[in-house]
Amino acid sequence: MAICGGCRAEPAPWAARTGGAGLLGKKSFLFSALYAAFIFGGRHLMNKRAKFELRKPLVLWSLTLAVFSIFGALRTGAYMVYILMTKGLKQSVCDQGFYNGPVSKFWAYAFVLSKAPELGDTIFIILRKQKLIFLHWYHHITVLLYSWYSYKDMVAGGGWFMTMNYGVHAVMYSYYALRAAGFRVSRKFAMFITLSQITQMLMGCVVNYLVFCWMQHDQCHSHFQNIFWSSLMYLSYLVLFCHFFFEAYIGKIRKTTKAE
């Protein structure tokens, strides 16, 4: 699809056939509020009882999301590679075909909807009485809010955001499934996933910068408010994931070295 020269995009056909993308934005706050209530209420209730094992359900859950993410990464990734190879970087950032292409429109809408069931990750953490860090629930809430509100506008850069997220989640949930199934996975694999997430957030900032620059010349469809919130979101993720990487890996290595 050609680059939109500053015009306002029409709603994505797939979203229109599935009840309208506008409803997603309104429901995102309800889902986020229920999610937050479950976090604080669930942790309070679990303080008074023994943890649940839930190993088999966790394997099934992680494997399902892994397979979904793998297919999503392959489908959106194939389109991304095609645009990059045939039309270049600018078109890959500004192209809106991800939202209404014959195949990618389904995976774009599926990506947005998947942010709700992905909240289920937290259910397992709370019921199994594992450590719940701020990054985890903050990331879930903000991604849900941003994705559900931005989808209706078909903003530029969405193809990159979706493809990167699908790719990282394909590896991450595969790792979770293996761990839940009892396989011993190298610590380096976990470090690789976190580094991939850091790279994703850095690329998200770069894509937002490119959209902002090209938007000034009416070559990318977006608006300043979206770029502002998206950039703030990606920057906060970048800081939090870098902090997590240092605390989880670098800090522990230093402590082990000192102990020896």
**Mean pLDDT across all amino acids:** 88
Q: What is the C-alpha radius of gyration, as a whole number of Å? A: 19 Å
Estimated share of beta-strand residues: under 5%
- Annotation field: number of helices: 11
The helix/strand order is HHHHHHHHHHH
**Class from secondary-structure proportions:** mainly alpha
Helical content band: over 70%
Query: pLDDT below 50 for ≥5 consecutive residues: which ranges?
Result: 1-19
> Largest sheet at a glance?
none
> Globular, elongated, flat, extended or rod-shaped: what is the shape?
globular
State the distance separating the first and last CA atoms: 60 Å
Q: Please report the total strand number as a whole number.
A: 0
